[in-house]
Amino acid sequence: MLTDAIKQLKTAIIMLIIFTLLTGLIYPGLVTGLAQLLFPWQANGSMLVQNGKRLGSVLIGQSFTDPKYFWGRPSATTPYPYNAELSTGSNLGPSNPDFLKTVKERVAALQKSNPQNQVKVPVDLVTASGSGLDPDISPYGAYYQAPHIALARQIPEAQVYALIQKNIQRRIFGIFGEPRVNVLELNLALDNISMQKE
Amino acid sequence: MTENGMWQVAIYLLVLLALVQPLGWYMARVYEGKRCGLDFVLGPFERLIYKLSGVHTDREMGWKKYLSAMLVFNLLGMLFLYALQRLQFYLPLNPQSFSAVTPALSFNTAGSFITNSDWQAYGGENSLSYLTQSLGLTVQNFLSAATGMSLLMALIRGIARHETAKLGNFWVDTVRGILYILLPLSLILALGLSSQGVIQNYKPYVTAGFVKEQVIPMGPVASQVAIKQLGTNGGGFFNTNSAHPFENPNIVTNFLEMLAILLIPAALCYTFGVMVKDRRQGWAILLAMYLMFIPVTVMTITAEQYGNPALTKMGVEAKPQHNMSTGGNMEGKEVRFGIVNSALWSTATTGTSNGSVNAMHDSFTPIGGMMPLWLMHLGEVVFGGVGCGLYGMLMLVIIAVFVAGLMVGRTPEYLGKKIEPYEMKMASVAVLLMPLMALLLSAIGSVTHLGIDSLANPGAHGFSEILYAFTSMGNNNGSAFAGLNANTPLYNIAGGLEMVMLRFWMAIPVLAIAGSLARKKIIPGTVGTLSTHTFLFIILLIAVTLIIAALSFFPALALGPIVEQLMLWGQYGH
User: Which of A13, A105, B61, B493 is the most exposed place for a label (fewest CB within 10 A)?
Assistant: First the structure.
């Protein structure tokens, strides 16, 4: 009986060691090797680099507050928005008074900075994303901001619309996913127009 | 629900259905010890493992031996994972120099990962080193998934065999499950994910920024995400799990990850059919699962698409705009997934014991958040975790057969085996333990400061947070109404104990039934035998599942999400 138990314990320990090495070291190591070989850009965070400066990851949203740029979604990360070191959503419930107050303030702020707009406020621009790092906004959210961007940059509105149009990522096969615009890429494109103008 | 939403759900479910038969057939070959194609490459390695660890493949185990092997193996894993977290500061692969994890949190996380729960009281990117993530969490993702499948195989053999005490060899089942099923699938999925932007490296965090500098976390993410989904584990590399763009950067990865969640649980139904030599039985159970999954998913999507009436009142556009905006309730959701894929994911992850999230369930509308909670209340049998979902479902099958037997006054049978008081008692223990623990702990959480001081939201929603937490841990799910601060002594220790107790306590009646069924004779069927593959039986099975969950949990749901939805409508109209 006792020798049986000892034998079982020995087997369990050896199994644990083998699988720790196999699934904890060899497997992630193999995936790392292959990913670095086959998809180095993706495996290292899809970083955008311009003139030797790392502008950030295409996949990780950044905070834009300047009226000359498109704003991304509200972010609930602490201590400041879009803190990539600790992703988090607000986790506020739909009937929480704090949540409703925050949204009300966001709606007011958005309407104030876009006085030209009489349409309803896009929901993604007044609600915090799940990760706090959402890199995208909806096309509706981008078009909503177009008039004030045009004004702030002194460029024709049509040009801003065309730029948004060009940057919309549509549903795959027209079915999967949701239409979206990457805020960092859109803002980069915006800066490029302004540079060409000068 | 929009037309596009229907297409996205329908195609997802059809692709899943198409994969059930090939994978189910393959897994049956793996567990029956037959040639499966990969043994040319991995066979020598498999034999080497047996040799090193002194396993005799021909020595099968009775149920008690199978149970003790499983327990010893898992508890050792728990000790190792605990030690790894406590010592991570002194160990390599810790470029951010994270300090040791606290004892209560280490206990919770260790318990959580060996039980396939993967409850996250930790925030990965700011507390766990790469070594802890890969050598600890990734390993337990494999081991706990393989353990669940092994337990299921013991039960299936108990049903299929007759007049024997032997249920197979736990070590062989576990080794084959990992080598031939989990590892190859994970490798393929991990590469697929990293091609789409899921990161995979061991580099220190990167500083970058356009207007303002940002510190961007790195790590071996793809390898862990792959097994976390395939093994219905669900523990994220990052704090926000699969809502984080580095875990789930676009709709392709989202589709693959959602598919991976339901893939093995659904295919195991077919494996079951093959192994009991009556494939209709497997299809019948799978159909019951689909029939429960679809309405719940449709309701969740509808509730989320409808949005929050309080926001609509403020002038927010809640209706979907064609090719422009998804509308709906976007708090806690990502634009790239929108309403449909966030809601669909939430039901896939809670129907199984996965528990990974791509949107914050805490911020769902009350009814939208109740649906994932309700799926866990069903006992996670709608697909369910790898292995444990189907053995949970088979417990309900036994109860359904028993109920049917009572109705017509015959001794109940399932697949030629008499279901007697012993099996019925064990099945009841297995089914009733989870509601008991989940409700008891929720009650304690709701009346003590230890419990309510952690709440993020007041009122009925706060109660939902507590109920969700203990339901999730009791079912080894791991998703959360994450506003709740779970990194406190009560939630860490009580929740940790709940996860460990329910997972292993449940294994005892399951294996006991397996042992008892295996010893019985097979009675040839007659005209009077209840056939368990008919539509009538499927309806009966669904009814039994729903009634048990409704009787146990309806009062609690009425106090949480239901009252919150009514108040929201009452205040803001609908």
Answer: A105
Place of tokens 């951010």: B96
On whether both A141 and A180 belong to a single domain, the answer is yes
State how far the Cα of B457 lies from the Cα of A75, in Å rounded to an integer.
18
Written as six digits, the tokens of B269 are: 């139904």
Q: Answer yes or no: do A127 and A75 share one domain.
A: yes
CA B47 to chain CA mean position, Å = 31
Nearest by CB to residue A130, choosing from B197, B217, B243, is B243
**Phi, psi dihedrals of residue B56, rounded to the nearest 5°:** -95, 110
Per the model's pLDDT, the better-predicted residue between B268 and A117 turns out to be B268
**B5 close to B340: Cβ distance less than 8 angstroms:** yes
Average pLDDT over residues B266-291: 97
H helix or E strand, kind and range, residue B413: strand B413-414
Using a CB-CB cut-off of 8 Å, the residues of chain B touching A91 are 332, 360, 362-363, 456-457, 481-483
Residues in contact with B242: Cβ distance below 8 Å, sequence separation at least 6, in sequence order:
B225, B236, B248, B254, B257, B345, B356, B357, B358
Give the 3-state secondary structure percentages of chain B, helix then strand then coil, rounded to 5. Answer: 65, 5, 30
Distance from the Cα of residue B167 to its chain's centroid: 25
Backbone angles phi, psi at B155, to 5 degrees: -65, -45
The answer to whether residues A110 and A165 belong to one domain is: yes
pTM: 0.95
A:3-42 residues touching chain B, CB 8 A cutoff = 7-16, 18-20, 22-25, 27-28, 30-32, 34-36, 38-39, 42
> Do A94 and A111 lie in a common domain?
yes
Question: CB under 8 Å to B393, separation ≥6 — which residues?
Answer: B285, B288, B289, B381, B384
Question: Nearest-CA distance from A117 to chain B in Å?
Answer: 12
The average pLDDT across B134-139 equals 91
Which tokens in the block code for residue B304?
């989320």
Residue B333 Cα to chain centre, angstroms: 21
Nearest residue to A54 via CA among A184, A191, A196: A184
- Residues 196-215, chain B: which have Cβ within 8 Å of A? 196-203, 205-212, 214-215
pLDDT, tens digit (0-9, with 9 covering 90-100), for B91-104 = 888 888 888 889 99
A157: its two tokens: 């509105």
Instruction: State how beta strands A121-122 and B413-414 pair.
Output: unpaired
Nearest-by-Cβ selection for A46 from B197, B227, B316: B197
Rounded Cα–Cα distance for residues B355 and B340 (Å) = 18
Same domain, A172 and A124: yes
Co-location of A50 and A107 in the same domain: yes
Q: Which of B266, B232, B219, B257 is nearest to B342 (CA)?
A: B257
If asked whether residues A61 and A27 sit together in one domain, one would say no
Interface predicted TM-score of the whole assembly (ipTM), two decimals: 0.95
Is the same domain home to A19 and A33? yes
Residue A192: which residues within 8 A CB-CB, separation 6 or more? none
CA gap B521, B335 in Å, rounded: 57
Rg (CA), chain A: 24
Omega cis (within 30) before B421: no
Q: Which domain holds residue A34?
A: 2-42
Beta bridge partners of A35: none
Select from B67, B307, B490, B210 the least CA-distant residue to A184: B210
What pLDDT does A198 receive? 58
What residue type is assigned to position B29 of the chain?
A: R
Our count of domains for chain A comes to: 2
